[in-house]
Specification:
Elements (H helix, E strand, L loop, with lengths): L3 E5 L4 H13 L5 E2 L10 H13 L5 E6 L3 H7 L7 E3 L3 H9 L5 E5 L5 H13 L6 H11 L3
Parallel strand pairs: 1-2, 1-3, 3-5, 4-5
Helix pairs in contact: 1-5, 2-3, 4-5
């Protein structure tokens, strides 16, 4: 299993804790970079911290959560080398790995329930990049990094 990091703002804290427990029950180690309570924090700070940890190679993949998943996905995608995918269903999670080689999964606690979120995480973690014609496209995404 790859090195995995997880983070959230206050709006995603409860779902982050649920996913951490789910992963622990499956024997998957994950590093939590915060936040560690429901006290208000700014989601770009957490998302960029997580994205930089993935982009610089400290972690292979990351999971980032806020209320909707939108803000953290936008912020994470500002970091060169990051392909954060906002997924609220298992099909999108599978395709984000297979076609886009997504290295960050973004989700929204206020959008999906904990059961579905755990299924999405499992699907995303078990997915792999198909390469082939998709590799050319991912290389074009990488070329857009500033």
């Amino acid at each position: 299993m790859s090195k995995l990091v997880i983070g959230s703002d206050h709006g995603g804290f409860a779902l982050k804790e649920t996913i951490k427990s789910h992963l622990a029950a499956r024997g998957v180690a994950v590093t939590d970079i915060g936040t560690h309570s429901t006290d208000s924090v700014d989601y770009p700070d957490i998302a960029v911290k997580l994205a930089e940890a993935v982009a610089d190679g400290r972690f292979d993949r990351g999971i980032i959560i806020c209320g909707t998943g939108i803000g953290v996905s936008i912020a994470a995608n500002k970091v060169p080398g990051i392909r954060a995918a906002l997924c609220h269903d298992t099909f999108s999670a599978a395709m984000s790995r297979e076609h886009n080689d997504a290295n960050v999964l973004a989700m929204g606690e206020r959008v999906i329930g904990p059961g579905l979120a755990c299924l999405i995480v499992d699907t995303w973690l078990e997915g792999s990049f198909a390469g082939g014609r998709h590799a050319r496209r991912v290389e074009k995404l990488k070329a857009l990094d500033c």
